[in-house]
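Reader question, answered in our methods column.
A reader sent in the components of a multi-part assembly and asked whether the whole thing could be modeled at once rather than chain by chain. We filled in our standard form and ran it. Here is what they sent:
COMPLEX SIZE: two components
ENTRIES:
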Amino acid sequence: MLLSLRGVTRTVELPDAPPLEILRGVDLDIDEGDHLSIVGRSGSGKSTLLNIVGLIDTPTSGEVELDGVPLSSVGTGRRDRLRGRNVGFVFQQFNLLPGRTALENAETALLYAEGRQFWQRRRIATAMLERVGLGDRLDSTSDQLSGGEQQRVAIARALVRGPRLILADEPTGALDVETGASIMQLLIEVARSTGAALITITHDPNVAGLASRHYRLDRGVLADDAQGLLAAAGVARQLPPAPSPAAIEGGAS
Amino acid sequence: MRLWTEIVGAIAEAWQELRIHRTRVLLSLIGVGVAVAALTTVVAAGAIVQQAQTETLERQGGRPAHVTLNAYDTATGQQPDPELIEAAFQRVAERYDIGWTSRTFGLGARVQTPYGVVDAGLSLADPDWGVMHRAELVEGEWFTDRDALRLAPPVIVNEYLWRQLGSPPLSSHPTIDVVSGDRPLTVVVVGIVPSPLWDEYPQMHGLTAHMDRFIPREELQYQWPQLELWLPVDNADALMEVVRRDMAGALGEDVQVDAWRDDYLVWGASDPLEFVRLLVAGVGILILLLGALGLLNIALVTIKYRIREIGIRRSFGAGAGRVFFGVMMESVVATAVAGVAGVALSVLAVRILSATLLAEIVQDVPAFPLDAAIFGLVVSVAVGALAGLLPALFAVRVKVIDAIRY
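And here is the structure of the entire assembly that came back:
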């Protein structure tokens, strides 16, 4: 088991109000190669769950285990290193570092690596950008890239350290339908080829429909979304065909 | 190994940061650089003025601890036999291993110039006097022991007298006829001491050894020498008293020997340069505070704009220590560069100041003090560390989740 959550709750203290329960008794098992989707309305706790799964946040109660090791017994510094080594984030707003080139952005994650990954960061980042179809845009800064290209850079950055868990928070939220589809295709493809688990948080049933396991988060409670699965399967049939490698190479905005 | 990659990684990160935000960095650097330049210039100029003032004071009263002795016979009201005084003085100097001594006479002489005969001041001393009073020459050299052997007495004249002589080159061995003695005397000019702007009186320095050549023999007994000693500062007062007592003992019961310090360190209870030092330090600290505040202000504003970036870096594994070190290093590296620029600017400013304003006020402008340059660099690094500390603490406290959504 790569990661497991048992009885995870997350509560936020509010001034002059009772504590707000964002997550309630969440149980979740994630294996390498899994592809999960989590859907839910705004404010349902999706991002909080993603932050806990991504070792950014800690639960108020319950336990998170990585490779069977309970993270409650792990110090902050080690958790930072575990996060850098095992988790790759793809954000809705891309979150590229402004002013940096695509290559520098992809290199960012490797600045916190060690050994070969650190010293050969330029070569590794270049190879990853070529893999996501941006071999000819290495020196373009983020403001010179289209939305689709920026998300590809973000994907390259998330993957350069070979994470075992890719967390995508609304990865297509800022993209049009076609570009979103090509981005998802790319994410699924690279996750599959590296054997990494992919967790996608989305509002979009089309995107959720691409996953193999479906969850719905409602008022902090995580549940299997069998109904959603059926619905998503219905919409997935309406998705445009997967883009060709040439289309990926050219990017789309 | 991990430490090494952490350091190299932080440097690469800081370099990227400085490159991307070069306008902001440049602006903050200008502020720090100007502050460091101002501070270093004040310290350097202060040190130069202080040094110049010290040298001026040492020329007047001798280098600390400078002691003058005087002897007179209480019975006759006259001075004791000059030869006795000289012998006693030499014995005492040898007994206490005092290496720097001089017999000094303040006299006058009439000298022939192209404009006619003029009165000139004549100061006779032993060769050590030049070192004891930090004598500096515009041209030529101060007397040595061998100059006492010259048949034509050598003199060192001030610039004013030298100009009256027609500014002859020293290589031509210019001579002056002294007409005030009881026989003809021609002296050779071997050096020139500077004349301040306000000095319009001809002045000559000669050797005590040639005293009988300058004044009539019958007047010799009326010339009272001042005996000067240069003593170590640490035990100067005790040594002065011992020397005075020994001299008095050697010259007999009726002879009273007085001894006193006349270097600038004994002028009043406190150091006369203390005010200059305090003023310089006060101005320096004020400038430093202003520079640090400006830098801190820019750094704090900047860090607020970088919250998202810090969050992104942390999501990819940057630990709190790395973020702290990175922000601190950006600040320190930037201010260190600004410090180097500031010190360079300061050297330039002081050089210009020395060539113009200071050259009018002081005769000998010392070189740019190394202490001031080191001080400027240390201060710039310290300011960078101080100004980087608060933003770095702020950066560490940034919550990753909030930062990414910022």
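What stands out: The first strand of chain B starts at residue 66 and ends at 73. Chain B touches chain A through 26 residues (CB under 8 Å).
Send us your own complexes using the same form.
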